[in-house]
Design brief:
Structural class of chain A: alpha/beta
Oligomer: homodimer
Largest sheet of chain A: 7 strands, mixed
Shape of chain A: globular
Strand content of chain A: 5-15%
Number of helices of chain A: 11
Largest interface: A-B, 85 and 85 residues
Family (chains A, B): Belongs to the class-I pyridoxal-phosphate-dependent aminotransferase family. LL-diaminopimelate aminotransferase subfamily.
GO molecular function, one term (chains A, B): pyridoxal phosphate binding
Cofactor (chains A, B): pyridoxal 5'-phosphate
Helix content of chain A: 25-40%
Order of helices and strands of chain A: HEHHEHEHEEHEEEEEHHHEEHEEEH
Distance between the termini of chain A: 62 Å
Pfam family, one (chains A, B): Aminotran_1_2
InterPro entries (chains A, B): Aminotransferase_I/II_large, DapL/ALD1, PyrdxlP-dep_Trfase, PyrdxlP-dep_Trfase_major, PyrdxlP-dep_Trfase_small
Chain lengths: 410, 410
């Protein structure tokens, strides 16, 4: 008789954004004429950069002719894209990577979800709180989270609260942990770590033999000099960190699916007998066994953003979204609401009025202003009392949403 | 200190096809002028069907305009493709599926590799032998395979030999197992199960509470009436089987990446306390957490093969490859070699001459005939003494390869 992985049964049945979609749908049905602006989910609204469109058309045409057809590609991604990534994203920051250290995939969600495959169940995992739900849920599935308590915390995870009280800078764990997930610029708070703050984490990881899972999916939105784009800007990180990147937000690839993961040759973890194993060949074996490469067409689309014209087009998109973020920060201030983020990240994180919970404020904002947000509590217990707004909407929608918030609260 | 999943360290370092590629590369370097024909890896050579090319061009154009842009899609796949699959692949065979039972993905390799996520480590897994390596390797990673013995068998797996002695029809397990992987039409042997033979498996699974993982990636190549295309043609299979399908070989999508998995609502597995859980919501949760949907462009390309013109184009491709298979069967016969498969599958499985091992015959065939094959032993211990040839090559190459084999052996 087949036995299920019972860890799955501990998970709440649905995903945060599915809950929100259901609530919004119910509201729309009850208020059919209402004009609703969606600043909830972090999905882009601008079309793909024209360079990617053109590259994908060419790639589709290649697939129509047996002389240029591409069948199975390398599970790790095509050399043309890996080279473009290394030269475009890392060399300009003084970081050298070998092609075998970069693994192209169908997205950072897959990679951050699957990376646990190569780790033992017997690891203590730390997460910042609030946090991108995939890190928590995938570790629940992997049997590392223990039990869900009434306070919304999993007994086996170490939570690192990030709130206004500590300026959203997580303290180092006060107990022994083995793996830490860090996402900077942060989803959902939109806040960052400075180079010095990230160095503390790398030094801590090296001193305590901790593995850092560094998610820098939002690095393209960084505008301030002292915010590192890659953890490998910090000395020693090649020995203790895996980095995840995505084309989703940078280049609008949420529907096209492409990301990559860097596993330096020096990153190792322990065996039970105290010896060490390099993680790069393990991740390679995982990808070769359970993945068959990203679409050739997608990879050609991703490569195109590294051309000079591609960079210019991506920059325009990012500037557009960051103008939204600026308008939102200013609008919230004018409405008397305290907010963070939106300077180096496409998310603005705001404090709900005293005594109003995340879900309550979410519903008020939907009802009074017709604006869909994401309740901070959905990202973890320390997100209670906060709301996330996404800057990925259309400019006119963002401005109109702020005008409505001012009218409602100002 | 982070701990690795030590199961990974038990796996041989590289994948079968990587070994072969290395051997062929070494041979080419030693024999630079030699004309080599590749009938090893099962990758297609015809370009994509024109309907898919046109659909993908349209989809790329949609991504260029914010009014028709597609961002995040459903993790389970778009409704348009799921409906086309149900109406095109199942309804004509009298099988009703609900949209929520079909999960579109980036390929059957990902799904057959990841399905173990929802199962406990404490399952005894049976595999036919020889077998597609992903089933074995992913269960090694999941901790279900035990130790690799000197005979090439994993101590924790139950092997079901399929050789000429039993006409490649696996006997039911002679000990208690919980999960069985069946791939029919079979990779690598190209053989099939009749409706009656598959019914025995379904009846056995229902009687013994066994979960069947049914991989029907090659169903489009079936030419004989008594060979089932889907396990759900067999009564009761909805209660005990998960089915995997692929667009890779059917429609040449090896480089575009699309497949799907059917998890009927009735399929359940046990908890330790003896109660049962449905697997459909577990797989849904897995995909929602660790996957973000297949590329929109890819899904439009896949949808197109279900149009009347698409079906005609796919049929032409399959006929082309199956004409290769027929030529190969006839050529091998003329060369005095016993062979199976190639009637309902794009693989021909041949017996090496008495006393010649798989790898030895692979090397002889490369050296004497300039033909790349896949050694049967690479698919498992019972593959020793056999060789797989793929019918996915160009017609002229297949014919020339057979002429060379006749000259060498005939």
């Amino acid at each position: 008789m087949a036995l299920v992985n019972e860890q799955f049964l501990k998970l709440p049945g649905s995903y945060l954004f599915a809950d929100i979609a259901r609530k919004v749908a119910a509201y729309r049905e009850a208020h059919p004429g209402r004009d609703i602006i969606r600043l909830g989910i972090g999905d882009v609204t601008l079309p793909l950069p024209q360079v990617s469109i053109e590259a994908m058309h060419r790639a589709v045409d290649e697939m129509a002719d047996s002389r240029t057809f591409h069948g199975y590609g390398p599970e790790q991604g095509y050399g043309f894209l890996i080279e473009a990534i290394i030269r475009g994203d890392y060399e300009p920051r003084g970081i050298s990577l070998k092609p075998g250290e970069v693994f192209v995939s169908d997205g950072a969600k897959s990679d951050t979800g699957n990376i646990g495959d190569i780790l033992s169940r017997d690891n203590v995992v730390a997460v910042t709180d609030p946090v991108y739900p995939v890190y928590v849920d995938s570790n629940v599935m992997g049997g590392r989270a223990g039990e869900l308590g009434g306070d919304g915390r999993w007994s086996g995870l170490c939570y690192l609260p990030c709130t206004a009280d500590n300026a959203f800078v997580p303290a180092l764990p006060d107990r022994k942990v083995d793996v830490v997930y860090l996402c900077y610029p942060n989803n959902p708070t939109g806040t960052t770590l400075t180079r010095g703050q990230l160095k503390q984490w790398v030094d801590y990881a090296l001193a305590n033999d901790v593995l850092i899972m560094f998610d820098s999916a939002y690095e393209a939105f960084i505008s301030e000099d002292d915010v590192p784009h890659s953890i490998y800007e910090i000395e020693g990180a090649r020995r203790c960190a895996i980095e995840f990147r995505s084309f989703s937000k940078t280049a609008g690839f949420t529907g096209v699916r492409c990301g990559y993961t860097v596993v330096p040759e020096e990153v190792t973890a322990r065996l039970a007998d105290g010896t060490r194993a390099a993680l790069n060949p393990l991740w390679n074996r995982r990808q070769c066994t359970k993945f068959n490469g990203a679409s050739y067409i997608t990879q050609r689309g991703a490569e195109a953003i590294y051309t000079p014209e591609g960079r210019r087009q991506v920059r325009e998109h990012i500037d557009y979204y960051m103008a939204n973020a600026r308008a939102m920060r200013e609008g919230l201030k004018a409405a008397g609401i305290e907010a963070w983020g939106g300077v180096n990240a496409p998310y603005v994180w705001l404090k709900t009025p005293a005594g109003v919970g995340s879900w309550q404020f979410f519903e008020q904002m939907l009802d009074r202003a017709g604006v869909v947000s994401t309740p901070g509590a959905g990202f973890g217990p320390s997100g209670e009392g906060y709301i996330r707004l996404s800057a990925f909407g259309k400019q006119e929608d963002c401005r109109e949403a702020m005008a409505r918030l001012r009218r409602w609260l100002g």
